Amino acid sequence: MSRTAIYQVGDIVKLKSGGPDMAVKEVMINGYDEFKGNYRCQWFAGKKLDNGVFPEESLLKVETSE
What we know:
- The chain is mostly beta strands.
- It has a domain at 12-54.
- Helix content is 0%, strand content 52%.
- It has strands at 12-15, 22-29, 35-45, 48-55, 59-61.
- The N and C termini lie far apart (36 Å).
C-alpha cells in the first residue's frame, strides 16, 4: 500500500518536539516513485545551513501569515 506525502517541497515544518522552523527540501521516494515516509529538511543554525531526514510522523506544518 503506497502512502501520499502530506508535505511538499518548500513547506515550512518543525519537529513536534520543538526546534527551529525548517523548509522541506526533498520528499523522499524509492525507485518506484513511492513515498517512503521521510522528508529531507533544511534550516539555519546561526549562519550555518544544516539539514536532516525526518519521518512524517515527527513533523508539524508551521502556519505562516502571508
